[in-house]
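Quick one:
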Amino acid sequence: MKLTNLQLSRTIAATPGEIYDVWLDHKSPGGPWFGAARVILNPAVDGLFYHCVKHEGREWAHYGRFIRLDRGRVIEHTWVSEATKGVETVITVTLEPRRAETLVTLTHANVPDDPMGRQHEEGWGFVLSSIAQRFGTR
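Output:
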């Protein structure tokens, strides 16, 4: 199976710490876990997560574990789902301060290079847009 890396960047009107906190709180609007049908989240190194989202009339389960957590700088976790064909992929979110904003760069490594795998780019774009909308403009 051929694998690829996806990368998205977005400048968000929030501090790195604010974005970090939203990412790791499943009750925080805009974050990647918010609004999921079911969530189990232990945001600690080696902590596990499970979340199930409803999309296109189905429920999609996602699993992973946190690899690296450096508040306000980086979040790294694995990501396994039907769309990754069971391959343990890796999400790295870097947070770089830019005056009153933060440059957020998300890399999703080792994603299957097929339509389902590449669809993650749309999903992560939605997450970054949701976080940006939460903070609006400053």
